[in-house]
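Long-time lurker, first post. I've been practising inverse folding by hand and with some scripts of my own, and I keep getting stuck on stretches where the structure tokens seem ambiguous. Below is the full token string for one chain I'm working on. Before anyone asks, I'm not after the true native sequence, just a reasonable design that respects the backbone. If someone could post their per-position residues I'd love to compare against what I wrote down in my notebook.
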């Protein structure tokens, strides 16, 4: 009886030992699996982080390349803008010069402020020998026209007839001819330009006005706020 009880006690003891060992082995196995899974997760995360860092480096390098390309394009655009500005200035100057030449040739209608000079014959004195000393001659008209051009006149007309770069004026008895057209006195010379400058130039002491008055020419000067001159017709 005692022997059977002892054998039973041994069996119970060994059973408890084996159960404990099994529990320890199972727990160790589970812990090992969890550590492997954690290690695997950590390894995968590191690989993903590395891949993301590599992509970020590539993106930054591409961004720098694009920035450099943008900088080069901006410099090209600045050069183009400078060239366009220079060309625009050249075209503006050409257009301005063309307009001046057309005005000088009498090809366009012009208007603006200016002066109006009137030259008239003086009253003849019977006791004088030469009547030519009391009439306006072409050189009188030339003196006024030259002074007006020197003073910056952009357009000039005589009795409404525009002058050009190749106009000629000749005296033909009591009249003068302008490009073949006869004009009797009084001679009204109109000029477009800076009125104050032209008036001051004509009124200078010892200048054109004084010369004409001393030559028995009746001289009058008037500043006009606007003078209109029509273009010349024909070839």
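-- Answer (accepted) --
I ran through it position by position. Result:
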């Amino acid at each position: 009886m005692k022997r059977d009880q002892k054998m039973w006690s041994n069996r119970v003891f060994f059973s408890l030992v084996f159960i404990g060992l099994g529990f320890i082995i199972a727990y160790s196995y589970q812990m090992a699996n969890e550590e492997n899974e954690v290690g695997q997760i950590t390894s995968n995360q590191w690989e993903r982080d590395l891949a993301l860092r590599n992509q970020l480096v590539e993106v930054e390098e591409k961004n720098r390349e694009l920035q450099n390309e943008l900088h080069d394009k901006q410099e090209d655009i600045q050069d183009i803008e400078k060239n366009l500005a220079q060309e625009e200035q050249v075209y503006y100057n050409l257009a301005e010069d063309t307009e001046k030449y057309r005005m000088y040739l009498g090809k366009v209608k012009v208007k603006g402020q200016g002066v109006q000079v009137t030259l008239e014959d003086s009253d003849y004195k019977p006791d004088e020998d030469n009547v030519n000393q009391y009439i306006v001659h072409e050189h009188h008209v030339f003196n006024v026209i030259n002074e007006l051009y020197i003073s910056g006149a952009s357009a000039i007309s005589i009795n409404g007839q525009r002058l050009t770069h190749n106009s000629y004026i000749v005296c033909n008895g009591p009249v003068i001819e302008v490009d073949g057209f006869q004009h009797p006195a009084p001679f009204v010379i109109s000029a477009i330009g800076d009125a104050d400058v032209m008036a001051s130039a004509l009124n200078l002491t010892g200048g054109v006005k004084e010369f004409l008055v001393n030559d028995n020419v009746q001289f009058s000067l008037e500043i006009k706020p606007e003078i209109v001159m029509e273009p010349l017709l024909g070839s």
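A couple of notes from the structure itself: The beta strands are 110-121, 155-158, 161-162, 169-172, 175-178, 181-184, 187-192, 217-229. Helices lie at 2-105, 138-150, 195-202, 208-214. Happy to go over any region you disagree with.
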